[in-house]
Amino acid sequence: MIVSKRFLDFYLNSSIHVALSCYALVRITFHVFHIQYDEPMAFFVFFGTIVGYNFVKYDALVRVKKNPIGTQLKIIAILSFISVVLVGYYFFHLKRITQIVSVGIFAITALYTLPFFPNRKNARNWAGVKIYIVALCWVGATLVLPLINAEIPFTTDFFIKCIQRFILVFVLILVFEILDLANDDPHLQTVPQTIGVKRTKILGLSLLVPFWFLEIFVSTFNYHDAFINLIMVIMLMLFIIFANPNRSKYYTSFWVEAVPIFWWLMVVFYKI
User: Fold this and answer.
1) In angstroms, how far apart are the furthest CA atoms of the chain?
2) What's the pTM?
3) Measured distance CA(15)–CA(21) in Å, rounded
């Protein structure tokens, strides 16, 4: 039991789980826009997520606080280094325009973590901004990059899917912010800190309504995808309803973050 918990903690702390969620969203993008499986693109996002998230999570811990590095953190550092190498490998298999846009997304991630401006905190600590930066980065990495690399034009469907993807990630982060309410710095002005837990839940539930109905306006609309999306929406609604600051960390770090993975698996099993 102890070994299983340690493995699960490593799996979550090393950002493999969140990377799988991003990978799943890339595969959803391939499915929605009928893009043939693009291994370099999918694994570039997967390993890039590991690098980006571990950089965000552990940079301050090591660089600023100079905390002693334990065994798990050393293994995570090795995994992150291997991921950096693989990101570089897959980066050179992408089209030039995709490379340029991906550098821009990385720059936003760096801005989120490092204080580039004198006497200013990093973007992660800017009041009320965190949720929008993270959502935009996810949209860019899991939707914009795959379409650019596949040379698919930005049609109305693209913009609808961008709005849907932004809403999805925004709502996922809302659940995280509800659980982190007791630990977040009040100066962050997260959504639950600003409007309260009850209104945050109402906001999240309300946003999922246009998320689903926007599917009707997609030119490739089909009932099977709409039904799968509805199941995913109901799943998310339940996570929002039962979210509270007393929940275990696994509620968000494993179950909520697994929503995109469940979504992708539903699509895969439907195809079989």
Assistant:
1) 56
2) 0.91
3) 10
Residue 252 exposed, middle or buried by CB count within 10 Å (0-12, 13-18, 19+):
buried
Q: Is the separation of the CB atoms in 15 and 57 below 8 Å?
A: yes
pLDDT tens, 59-99? 666 655 555 667 888 899 999 999 999 999 999 999 999 99
For residue 119, which amino acid is it?
N
End-to-end CA distance of the chain: 34
Average pLDDT, the chain: 89
Q: Which amino acid is at 262?
A: F
What separation in angstroms does the CA of 128 have from each of 79, 164, 185, 191?
32, 21, 12, 7
Please tell me the distance from the alpha carbon of residue 268 to that of residue 107, in angstroms, as a whole number.
33
Q: Which residues contact 252 (CB under 8 A, 6 or more apart)?
A: 175, 176, 179, 243
Tokens coding 211: 């998320």
Q: How many angstroms separate the CA atoms of 249 and 6, rounded?
A: 14
In whole angstroms, what is the distance from residue 209 CA to residue 236 CA?
Answer: 11
